[in-house]
Design a protein that fits this description.
By secondary structure, the protein is α/β, with parallel strands linked by helices. Helices cover 43% and strands 14% of the residues. The protein folds into two domains: 184 residues, Rossmann fold (3-Layer(aba) Sandwich), CATH 3.40.50; 173 residues, Rossmann fold (3-Layer(aba) Sandwich). A seven-stranded parallel β-sheet has the order 3-2-1-4-5-6-7. It starts with a strand and ends with a helix.
């Protein structure tokens, strides 16, 4: 009796989004699993950052450079099927499968199709449709995504379980004497706004830079900066070129991946954390920012609305004027910043990776019992 898990997105060196989710849940699930686990990874050796496996559980290292889910995972699951399969990221392998659970994080492609070029939207659509047809149970991180699946895809709500994400223990409000030395290590000067997350087109970061330039043009005396993380290589060069075209010079700071206490320092020292996404199924950066006491300025879309629940400054409809006003208010109204900071910390306290992992464990145990029924 085993639960097979696609662990290919977990324990990566620089995780964002789904990678954070898979790592946080599996870090807690592995030491106390609902049944022996078979963990499939697209690599030659088990990840060193994963916790030790208990007796009965095993890693299946099955590397393949391209087409891993379609070919290698499919072959492995067909050859030696577990009693239950959990895929934490949308996509089931093709072919006949054991009873399966899949996490669908969002259907952003339906709300921002122009952010998915070259057929990407059609590909994500196919993954979601296939999951809803073949999975016995679907996990979503928010009521928003559950409602989207029901309303847009006519999914059965009784087959969808909402299990919210949590917050890393390292992400907490830091006092100035704690965060300032870490900011100095990162080369970040105050005051600054912050944008954290991946750089998919739907994350809308170039729009954010444009509105920042409108709010604080080259002759603005405030000296406020925009700090963007996960902006190494070509992404960072593109943002800096955009900043130079807008006359911002060194006032846009592109950082590599930042995690742990350094990320908490970035959030804690920020005038505001910006989430300009065109749509989000959950909005983990908004939750992380609130947990660290950073006021959140965000588009009022999807899961961000649900997660914030009155604890953020939300802009309707990706409105440029609303973003400019939001920048100005957060910089020049310390009372508003303090108010949103307190609301955000209180709101984020309701989210926990421990509770999330426990809910996943209970769900997998329940689905495993159903799989074993004659």
């Amino acid at each position: 009796m085993e639960v097979g898990i696609d662990a290919s997105r977990a324990f990566q060196p620089e995780p964002t989004g789904i990678g954070v989710y898979a790592t946080e849940v599996l870090s807690r699930l592995i030491p106390a699993p609902p049944a022996p686990l078979r963990l499939y990874v697209n690599r030659r050796t088990p990840p060193k950052s994963a916790p030790p496996l208990p007796s009965g559980s095993s890693w299946r290292c099955i590397p393949l450079p391209r087409g891993w889910t379609v070919f290698r995972l499919r072959q492995e699951v067909s050859r030696r099927p577990p009693q239950l399969l959990w895929v934490p990221a949308y996509r089931l392998p093709p072919g006949r499968l054991p009873r399966s659970v899949v996490t669908v994080h969002g259907v952003e492609h339906r709300f921002a199709p122009h952010a998915y070029p070259s057929g990407d939207a059609a590909q994500v659509e196919a993954f979601v449709v296939d999951t809803l047809q073949r999975a016995a149970r679907v996990i979503t991180p928010s009521e928003t995504t559950k409602a989207d699946l029901v309303n847009l895809f006519e999914a059965d709500p009784n087959r969808i379980s909402v299990i919210p994400h949590g917050i890393s223990a390292a992400l907490r409000p830091l006092a100035e004497e704690q965060f300032m030395p870490l900011l100095q290590e990162l080369g970040v000067e105050t005051p600054y706004f912050l944008a954290v997350g991946a750089h998919h087109r739907r994350k809308n970061v170039p729009f954010l830079i444009d509105q920042f330039a409108r709010a604080f043009p080259p002759d603005d005396p405030s000296g406020v900066r925009m700090v963007v993380t996960n902006a190494a290589g070509e992404v960072g060069r593109g943002l800096l070129e955009q900043a130079n075209r807008l006359g911002l010079g060194g006032r846009v700071v592109a950082l590599d991946h930042v995690a742990g206490e350094r990320l908490a320092a970035l959030y804690s020292g920020a005038v505001g954390a910006c989430v300009p996404s065109l749509y989000e199924g959950f909005g983990l950066p908004a939750l992380e920012a609130m947990a660290c006491g950073a006021p959140v300025l965000a588009n009022s879309v999807g899961g961000v609305q649900e997660i914030a629940q009155g604890a953020a400054l939300l802009v309707e409809g990706d409105d440029p004027t609303g973003w400019v006003e939001g920048f100005h208010r957060l910089l020049w109204e310390p009372g508003l910043r303090a108010h949103l900071s307190g609301l955000g910390v209180a709101r984020a306290a309701g989210f926990s990776w421990d509770r999330s992992a426990q809910a996943h464990s209970e769900l997998l145990a329940s689905e495993l019992r159903l799989a074993l029924k004659p």
